[in-house]
Design a protein that fits this description.
The chain is an alpha+beta fold. It folds into two domains: about 20-45 and about 55-75 and about 185-250, no CATH class; about 80-165. The protein is about 50% helix and about 25% strand. The protein has helices spanning about 60-75, 80-125, 130-160, 165-185, 190-200; strands at about 20, 30-35, 40-45, 60, 200-210, 210-220, 225-235, 240-250. A five-stranded mixed β-sheet has the order 1-5-6-7-8. The chain has a three-stranded antiparallel β-sheet with strand order 2-3-4. A hairpin with a 7-residue loop joins strand 7 and strand 8. Helix 2 (about 80-125) packs antiparallel against helix 3 and helix 2 packs antiparallel against helix 4. It is elongated, with a radius of gyration of 29 Å.
Length: about 250
């Protein structure tokens, strides 16, 4: 396959590797059409890579889909939205700290009861087998409770997100304030723009019709957004159209 047809990490298709066909569920690949000026126009194409002679399931202009995704990115990463997200994260961090403190108290109490039961067992007269057996059973029970409490803390920590430091929060806010200028900076290469998009967008499922393209955008964390790009035909050549984002909704 020639490099002309396959997208590269440096190519202009910003969602490369993150586009899914809404008709058959297969990954959509990047293809470049005839260059206009000095730039080849990329498209997201659903086609069997092993048999390029087969007709494409669907083919969608990458420029319009990318533009709508960038618009969504900038809408989501406004300083106000990020500040709200960080405030929510701070509350989650507080609740996480409370939860960990609760588990630590359970471990401290279980360890104290286990140590007490051990001392009782060690002080009993071995000749008094009945009492010794009862104290040993109690010690084993307290040890089991301690082990269970420690395991619960480990599970709690595994399910908790890492806390954001004050410096990390400051850097995140600075990035969101500078993001529109950073995105428009000609010194920023396409690969870097793809990396920024990948921080927010997990994948995009595309379904095209004669009148519009529907983009189901799945964000990091599982939230979804629906974007609809209206198709406007130009002239008699029905293969040429221009997409404009018309609707963006939560789902």
């Amino acid at each position: 396959m020639s490099s002309r047809n396959e997208g590269s990490l440096e190519g202009p298709a910003l969602l490369q590797g993150r586009v899914i066909c809404g008709r058959c569920g297969s990954p959509m690949h990047v293809r470049y059409g005839r260059p206009q000026g000095h730039t080849a126009r990329p498209r997201y194409v659903c086609q069997d890579q092993a048999d390029a002679r087969r007709a494409a399931c669907q083919s969608v202009p990458a420029t319009d889909v990318d533009a709508a995704s960038v618009h969504l990115l900038l809408d989501l990463l406004t300083p106000e939205a990020v500040e709200m997200t960080l405030a929510i994260q701070s509350e989650l961090d507080r609740l996480t700290a409370q939860g960990e403190h609760h588990h630590q108290l359970r471990i401290t109490r279980a360890r104290y009861e286990s140590d007490t039961a051990r001392r009782r067992f060690m002080l009993v007269d071995p000749a008094n087998r009945l009492v010794a057996a009862g104290l040993e059973a109690e010690w084993n029970a307290r040890l089991s409770e301690l082990t269970a409490a420690e395991a619960e803390l480990a599970r709690f920590r595994d399910g908790s997100q890492e806390k954001l430091s004050i410096d990390m929060r400051r850097r995140i806010l600075e990035l969101t304030r500078d993001l529109p200028q950073l995105w428009a900076d000609p010194a920023v290469i396409d690969r870097e723009r793809k990396e920024i998009l990948a921080l927010v967008i997990n994948d995009v499922t595309l379904t095209s019709s004669d009148t519009e393209i529907t983009a189901q955008v799945r964000l990091r964390g599982g939230a979804c957004r629906t974007q609809r790009l209206k198709i406007f035909r130009r002239g008699r050549d029905r293969r040429r159209f221009r997409g404009v984002s018309a609707v963006s909704s939560r789902s």
